[in-house]
Amino acid sequence: MGLRDRLKGAVKKVIGAAEAPKAPTRAIVGVGKDTPDGYRVVAAEGAIAEGGAGTYGHNNNRVVAVFLKDGAYYAIDNECRHEDGPVGEGEIRGCTVKCPYHEWEYDFTTGKCLTQPDSRLETYKVRVQDGFIQVGPMLTPGTTMRGGEHNDGLKVITR
Length: 159
Known about the structure:
With 159 residues, this protein is mainly β. The chain is built from one helix and nine strands, in the order αβββββββββ.
């Protein structure tokens, strides 16, 4: 302890000044950890390129697809409502993603299915904090329906 610190301490004793309150500290969390307010840390900021996506484990053993479009992050359920294909691995155009299995298309900003309008994926809150992308609670629920029409390019043969 230096002279300056001793003088400050002595002055505080004389005038009865209380210790300055310490700033609250946040627990440092890493990828795969949960924050106290219900978010899951899924990746370091910068892990997803502009116009791209990544898939990550989320709460309750779910996998979410996280997209970065025009500097904003969006997260949807990664399971296509058709046959559970990995939506986040599909082709991205603008704000839509096409499931690589049977080409069902979704608007990743809303979760709405463009191929089957009565179907949708869950959407989740996303934030960037302390240099990490964090996915939080559900914003909008998805439909539970599975299956439906698709064109896989195969010719149907009937006899």
